[in-house]
Amino acid sequence: MRTDYERSLKKLQDKVLSMGSMVEQALILSMDAMKNRDLALADKVIKQDEKINARRFEIEEDCIHLIATQAPMASDLRVIVAVLNIIIDLERIGDHAAGNAKIAVMLGDEPPLKPLIDLPRMAEKTADMLRRSMDAFVARDAAAARKVTEDDDEIDALYDQIFRELLLFMAENPKTASRATRLIWAGHNLERSADRVTNICERVVFVVTGKQEEIGGKY
């Protein structure tokens, strides 16, 4: 019986990792769609968000079933509670990625204000943070989770830089306001995604230490 329970917990963790990979891919592809004006790719990311949402509810049902049938205690209960929180943050990051795919569609074939460099950097860095947070969850490594949150400052700095630069574009040429505003939205989606990764890291620390605490900077 215990072996079946442990197998169920392992399966639950694997589903969370799979969902994390789906969200990480959505972050990267949505930015590729924006950078390359690839509307077909943007549409693919938007549709993929439905699968991410479905995976969240599937995992949630699994957690409820485990709690109801196994009455988990101590560390096992902490893992399940953490998973219930982690999948909410993953689903929200997926929403932000889908939001950026929709912005790519809005931008359509409008002429670019400038080559996109910092937004892709934000997307790649946020995806890297997400991947490392999932690794820390699997390894039950609180130190690694704390380390991930340190990178949120870099994301915030990039967003500030993008925001100031796009405001300058709008001030110098009001005709750029629409495109610049949409790019600011995209930056904000990525900045919020990194904050969500920080939340996941806090859940990892909770699993390991049993303590609820806020780590990393909040924008």
Number of DSSP strand runs: 0
Roughly what fraction of the amino acids lie in strands?
Answer: under 5%
Determine Rg (CA atoms, Å): 19 Å
- The best one-word shape is elongated
Helix content: over 70%
Major sheet description: none
Helical region count?
7
Q: Give, in order, the helices and strands.
A: HHHHHHH
Gap from first CA to last CA? 46 Å
Poorly predicted ranges = none
What is the mean predicted local confidence, pLDDT?
94
Global structural class: mainly alpha
Short description:
The protein has 219 residues and is an all-alpha fold.
Structure description:
The chain is elongated. With about 220 residues, the chain is mostly helical. The protein is built from seven helices and no strands. α1 (about 1-35) packs antiparallel against α2 (about 40-70), α4 (about 120-140) runs antiparallel to α5 (about 140-150) and α4 (about 120-140) runs antiparallel to α6. It is about 85% helix and about 0% strand. It has helices at about 1-35, 40-70, 75-105, 120-140, 140-150, 150-170, 175-210. It is found in: Cytoplasm. Homodimer. This is Phosphate-specific transport system accessory protein PhoU. It comes from Candidatus Dehalogenimonas loeffleri. Pfam families: PhoU.
Features:
elongated; mainly alpha; 7 helices; 219 residues
